[in-house]
Amino acid sequence: MNIVCLxxxxxxxxxIWIAFAEETGIPELRRTTRDEPDYDKLMAYRLNIxxxxxxxxxxxxxxxxxxxxxxxxxxxxxxxxxTTQVLILxxxxxxxxxxxxxxxxNPLLWCNELIVDEDGMISGYKMRVxxxxxxxxxxxxxxxxxxxxxxxxxxxxxxxxxxxxxFLFRSTEAIIKDNPDLPAYESYxxxxxxxxxxx
Length: 199
Fold this sequence. Notes:
By secondary structure, this protein is of the alpha/beta class. It is built from nine helices and seven strands. A hairpin with a 5-residue loop joins strand 3 and strand 4 (122-126). Helix 3 packs parallel to helix 5 and helix 4 (73-83) packs parallel to helix 9.
């Protein structure tokens, strides 16, 4: 029994933090898991910047409300879900992802939670489990699933490598170069064909 595990940001929707960086004019917030492999370090960096500028959840959610899925993403996901089971595995947060997941037709999402204080400021975050994408894939395998995984960033490589088939989608030149054995796709049409061939 197969299940396809997909990253969210950069694969199906634009990067939330990049959109927020553009909205606020704070270029430091453009840093993502494509740039920083250590997620805790990246989040500490982001939360410090938010605190410094007095920005909270409300401001980020206002930006997210304007974000649409990447062109062709919903159609790709609809066709894939007609073929096999799909799980979105993301290191984002339910408070960020919920409106975007609705726009994608409500696929199953496993992600994390923000800790928000009474003033609406983000004071921390709670990861579902350490190395959540890899841990999730291993858990699925332990109950009889064969996983196929795809993503674009450093934090996707663990689940990709642990799966029976794995792909990069619209990744960086550096990640593609460092992982020459992984098929790397740029179009949803080719990506869908690659996944279907692996099923």
